[in-house]
């Protein structure tokens, strides 16, 4: 890099040091300093950034975080509408009030760490803090890729730990009590509790995606409420899946299909509209929980219940993962590892039984040998006397006289 430091004298007689260099495009950049050491440090930093290809034009980082957030949010075309809506809420409530007027180039790692700690002090939940930090980090990451800042100052910031709540599992009897208390919506509760569908997947399930012959449900669509609007799209992992349908549900679901076309919704309100989680919980689910004598039960607990009942029926981790639509078996274990403790115990018992059977078979084979085969056991070729276990290194016991006396 072509760079230089020149000493200049101002009209008032004071001295300044002018540092200059040219960027890869040939444009000249310069700054003046009162001390030569400061000018050299600035020039060295620019040189290092050019060599490591982290150099950015200073003026490109002068855009404010608020302006850049609008540009970043409009570029998020690969996310679901519900995710985009949540990004916007996090920006408005947590990110922009603190960072909106800052320039991208002025955001520092230490300031981001202080901001994260401040959100916790103000009472935000750890999960909310992590989500707000993620949104801020994502928009700063785009600024790095666009050449506006050399690095992402939000990376490797200490974040609060999120404690996962223990899932609530219902028994078969509790599921039936809850379904009976829900009256006409009892089949909705049974469908959620015995298949593990997300509420949005259940609300978007259409008649043509039910295979009564093979007892399978094809989950290819989900509906969510975004800002008061219903948005239909793919399931959470963008992957369609097949879910087993218990025979006990087949007859009741067949009644719901009667008189409907293939594209009609399986479950709907009395007026035929889409079930909305918030309204359904307030009008149906919460009153049914109280009538059934239960407490601290949410609609999502029915999904946990499906996993619990599946494992109790002998399902493997992979089977539960496919049924619930998790991205990986590791995610299934993270949430439901406690359900597989009994499975591990049974595995240990089976391995122990196999080991004992092998040991018993070996002992039986030894006792079943004829005397001619067992006579030489323990001897090496050419060895006289007893087996090696009868010998000793004590010279007194090895004495022939002592052997005779004994």
TrEMBL record:
Pfam family, one: Phage_int_SAM_3
Location of region: Disordered: 370-399
Entry keyword annotation includes DNA-binding: yes
Name under which the protein is recorded: Site-specific recombinase XerD
PANTHER family assigned to the protein according to its UniProt record, in alphabetical order: PHAGE INTEGRASE-RELATED (PTHR30349), PROPHAGE INTEGRASE INTD-RELATED (PTHR30349:SF64)
Gene3D superfamilies, per the entry: 1.10.150.130, Intergrase catalytic core
Family affiliation: Belongs to the 'phage' integrase family.
Keywords: DNA integration, DNA recombination, DNA-binding
Presence of the UniProt keyword DNA-binding in the record: yes
Core-binding (CB) domain segment(s): 63-144
The Tyr recombinase domain, residue ranges: 165-349
Superkingdom: Bacteria
């Amino acid at each position: 890099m072509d760079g230089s430091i020149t000493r200049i004298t101002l009209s008032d007689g004071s001295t300044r040091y002018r540092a200059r260099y040219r960027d890869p495009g040939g444009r000249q950049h310069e700054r003046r300093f009162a001390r030569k050491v400061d000018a050299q440090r600035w020039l060295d930093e620019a040189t290092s950034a050019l060599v490591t290809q982290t150099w950015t034009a200073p003026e490109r980082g002068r855009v404010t975080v608020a302006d850049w957030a609008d540009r970043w949010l409009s570029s998020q075309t690969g996310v679901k509408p519900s995710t985009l809506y949540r990004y916007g809420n996090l920006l408005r409530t947590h990110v922009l009030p603190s960072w909106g007027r800052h320039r991208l180039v002025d955001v520092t790692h230490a300031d981001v760490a202080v901001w994260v700690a401040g959100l916790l002090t103000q009472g935000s939940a750890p999960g909310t803090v992590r989500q707000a930090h993620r949104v801020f980090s994502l928009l700063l990451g785009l600024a790095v890729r666009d050449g506006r800042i050399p690095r992402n100052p939000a990376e490797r910031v200490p974040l609060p730990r999120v404690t996962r709540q223990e899932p609530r599992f219902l028994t078969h009897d509790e599921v039936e009590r809850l379904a009976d208390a829900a009256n006409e919506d009892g089949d909705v509760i049974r469908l959620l509790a015995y298949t593990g569908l997300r509420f949005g997947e259940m609300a978007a399930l259409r008649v043509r995606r039910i295979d009564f012959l093979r007892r399978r449900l094809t989950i290819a669509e989900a509906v969510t409420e975004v800002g008061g609007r219903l948005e239909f799209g793919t399931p959470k992992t963008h992957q369609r899946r097949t879910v087993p349908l218990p025979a006990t549900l087949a007859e009741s679901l067949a009644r719901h299909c009667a008189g409907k076309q293939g594209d009609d919704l399986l479950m709907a309100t009395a007026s035929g509209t889409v079930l909305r989680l918030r309204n359904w919980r307030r009008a149906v689910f919460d009153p049914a929980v109280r009538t059934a004598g239960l407490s601290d039960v949410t609609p999502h607990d029915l999904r946990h219940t499906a996993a619990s009942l599946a494992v109790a029926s002998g399902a493997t981790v992979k089977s539960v993962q496919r049924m619930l639509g998790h991205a990986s078996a590791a995610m299934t274990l993270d949430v439901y590892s406690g359900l597989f403790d009994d499975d591990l115990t049974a595995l240990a018992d089976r391995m122990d039984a196999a080991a004992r059977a092998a040991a018993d078979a070996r002992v039986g084979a030894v006792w079943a040998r004829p005397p001619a085969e067992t006579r030489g056991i323990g001897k090496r070729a050419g060895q006289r006397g007893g087996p090696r276990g009868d010998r000793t290194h004590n010279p007194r016991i090895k004495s022939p006289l002592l052997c005779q006396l004994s």
